[in-house]
Amino acid sequence: MTSHTAAQKSFEELVAEAESVSVAGWDFSWLDGRATEERPSWGYARSMGERMATATAALDIQTGGGEVLASVPKLPKLIVATESWPPNIAKATELLHPLGVVVVQDEDNPPLPFADNAFDLVVSRHPVTTWWKEIARVLRPGGTYYSQHVGPASVFELVEYFLGPQPVARLGRRPEVAREEAEAAGLEVIDLRLETLRTEFYDIGAVIYFLRKVIWMVPGFTVDQYRDRLRELHEQIQAEGPFVAHTTRFLIEARKPVQV
């Protein structure tokens, strides 16, 4: 599917197509040719993989469908992933078990189902919540938490198109708050970087798919509820070109101090 092909389809055709596709897992390849998003300069999958290569015991929190973890070239001898959403658990199990990864169902509430000092590396890509005290507890002294988080007001041009101004929500997910919470849990933040990245949606099907998959952007989103607004956006894209938003991401790396 290319943006040119999508442009030839009617609103109803694009809606039906986007509603029918599965949104399980954390693979966004369905959007190829229909939406683009700049990638952060630090290359999370690559840099996380480099840390995995030297770890002995690692934990991937909120692994989604396991797609990012499965891309790691060299996994530690002991590697565990947690996930809460049942469709993702099934997908992650199918993908990760052949690689020797244990997938654990976890409801994303403390405590993490692991002993103290269990891992020398904990990672997470786009965690919905971050329980810093639990991360500090399961890390070994000298161990590292390495994660890419969704930043403040990410893709809020799209969120506010449907929900209107969100002044309070815009204040959430700030990197400096993550630093404060990590340090309060006893971790030392050794790297913290924020980037703003251009994102474009080339057809209304891409918008629908994105909002169905990233369910916290417009909570309770359904096509029926927002059909009029979706049609307006479809007509805007047809007349003016891609809908432009801005994604924010921050990288945080924190270390558990070695006890003296």
TrEMBL record:
SUPFAM superfamilies (UniProt xref): S-adenosyl-L-methionine-dependent methyltransferases
UniProt-listed Gene3D superfamilies: Vaccinia Virus protein VP39
Domain of life of the source: Eukaryota
Methyltransferase type domain residues: 59-146
Pfam families given in the database record: Methyltransf_11
Coiled coil residues, start to end: none
Protein name as annotated: Methyltransferase type 11 domain-containing protein
Lineage: Eukaryota, Fungi, Fungi incertae sedis, Zoopagomycota, Entomophthoromycotina
